[in-house]
Amino acid sequence: MICKDLINCSGPLADLPINDITNDSRSVAEGCAFFCISGSASDGHKYAADAAAKGASVIVAEHDLGLPNQVIVPDTHEAYSSACAAFFGNPADRLKLIGVTGTNGKTTVTYLLKSILEQLGHKVGLIGTIQNMIGDRIIEARNTTPDAKELHGLFRQMVDAGCDYAVMEVSSHALDQKRVWGLHFAAAIFTNLTQDHLDYHGTMDNYLHAKQLLFKMCDLAVINADDGYADRITDGADCRTVTCSAQSNYADYIAKGAVFRADGVNFELVGKDTIARVKAHTPGEFSVYNNMLAAVCAIELGNSISDVCTALSGTSGVKGRAEVVPTGRDFTVIIDYAHTPDGLENILHTMRGIKSGRLVVLFGCGGDRDSKKRPIMAQVAARLADYVIVTSDNPRTENPSRIIDDILVGMADTATPYTVIENRAEAIKFAINNARRDDIIVLAGKGHETYQILNTGKIHFDEREVVRDALAESAK
Q1: What is the pLDDT of residues 215-226, one digit of tens each?
Q2: pLDDT per residue as tens digits for the range 412-425
Q3: Strands 240-245 vs 165-169: parallel, antiparallel or unpaired
Q4: pLDDT recorded at residue 4
Q5: CB of 407 within 8 A of CB of 364?
Q6: How confident is the model at residue 16 (pLDDT cuts 50, 70, 90)?
Q7: Can you name the residues that pair with 22 across neighbouring β-strands?
């Protein structure tokens, strides 16, 4: 049977009992609808016969498999997302969705928006890299943007809990793989676009195209006008666009008079014949952009600039994003998720502007990910830091020493002193034991993560604990 809209199919398939829905043949049980999804690693069509043998009521495919109770659709990705929405009663239709996309800043902007909206009286769900949240309840996150079934299941829980907003990070992978197909966003935010995920997308143009898809699914686009891709991000989109800038007077909203502090930044948000002061609790120029984008989105959704900026000033920082770790010593340790050249440059540039001692950076690069950025990150570290410690990150299935060799290509001919310590815990201990008065030590790459992914699997690894233990040992 060929059907362009699985949910509205009529005929003999309409009466089949469907008690679950999946795209993973391993989870198929009696009465389940199985969707054959073609991915980069495998093709679900190969497992359709298995799913049928396990008792799947319906097999949804893109071509004839010769199986009973099969439905052929033009695109199983789209059909799966639509079916997942319908399976949970289309809960997203009862939420105001705000999507945040970009290479860096997504997590921070979503947390800032959640805090602003909650202080303004709303109940807000959050979906993102660190964790998913329904009000104050925390749910573990496995992907930045979940699989369609998990996503709509979260929306269902949010609606049932009384949420009226859902703020979510929308990754380029999710957009390309149509995990958010069929959703409509009240607003979408673009933070920036720099090199990342080219192992998946291949080229920056492909990466950009994936990001552009979000802005064809929204009513309002809030754009960082200072990013080099800003003019292209809404190409082909039919939505209202609002621009933000910290560099130009021609944007709709402008950040002026930034005063940078070790623990944050103050600035004035100017727009539409009005002005308000913002006191942000994360340091750096990137913090100006993150706070401005969150504030402008909330304002453009109908809240007053004074209420929004007051709420923003009462918002704390985000775990793993320029997070200051208490040491009780005469040096500072900062944990940051910077895992791209741009992210590393942002945090180091920020700390360089406020340091009075040395700026020490410890970083590695993830395995099974874009290898092209490894020497670039080394060049950034050597240019901006006074001392560099090269170590491991999440090597996954790659040999950590091979990853470090790729990084060291970027350290060639540098005058910046550096040390290589493959074991990340030992590298952190080295940084603590060799810290000098007024040093700023940036632990880059892991951020909020409390694990490390090795070729033997995932292990517990929380840098806050490693720092604490190193401080205790050095005090003996």
Answers
A1: 999 999 999 999
A2: 989 999 999 999 99
A3: unpaired
A4: 41
A5: yes
A6: low
A7: 34
pLDDT, residue 199, reads: 58
Q: How many residues are listed for the chain in this entry?
A: 476
Q: Return the pLDDT at 204.
A: 80
| C-alpha separations of 348 from 312, 334, 414 in Å | 25, 11, 17
Residue 338's nearest CA partner among 444, 194, 441 is: 444
Contact 131, 140 (CB under 8 A): yes
Q: List pLDDT tens digits, range 227-280.
A: 999 999 998 888 999 999 999 999 999 999 999 876 788 999 999 788 999 999
Mean pLDDT in the chain? 90
Cα–Cα distance, 67 to 45 (Å, whole number) = 11
Please state, in angstroms and rounded to a whole number, the distance separating the CA atoms of residues 319 and 449: 9
Backbone angles phi, psi at 362, to 5 degrees: -115, 125
Dist. CA 383–CA 385, nearest whole Å = 6
Mean pLDDT value across residues 10-32? 76
**Judging by beta carbons within 10 Å of its beta carbon (0-12, 13-18, 19+), is residue 295 exposed, middle or buried?**
buried
Instruction: Assess contact for 56 and 34: CB atoms under 8 A.
Output: yes
**pLDDT tens for each residue of 277-328:** 999 988 888 899 999 999 999 999 999 999 999 999 888 778 888 888 889 9
Phi, psi of 358 (to 5 degrees): -80, 150
84 residue type, one letter: C
